[in-house]
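Lab manual, section 2.4: Encoding a predicted structure.

Procedure: take the sequence of the chain (84 residues), apply the prediction step described in section 2.3, and record the output as structure tokens. A sample record is shown.
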Amino acid sequence: MEIAKMVVQTMRTYRTSDLYLSAYLKAKGLKFQDKYRVGDKFVFIFEDRDDRQQLIRDFFNDGMVSITAFKNAIQDLKTMVFNT
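Recorded output:
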């Protein structure tokens, strides 16, 4: 009799309250998971991935992203904040 093994993978997440960094990460394909309020700020939660640290470095060093994707990501995040 073979015993079935269940592999439980914990999803890694990344959290930030920086709206523009969040928009950049969303525009670069990180998957938005959730948000929560801390005082007068919102914290955005993304599914983490291996290149996230490089994406953050790119953001702070004038990384390139489609302006349309960036604008749409900002609008999406603001909508999520204001429709809470």
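Check your result against the sample. The chain has three helices and three strands.
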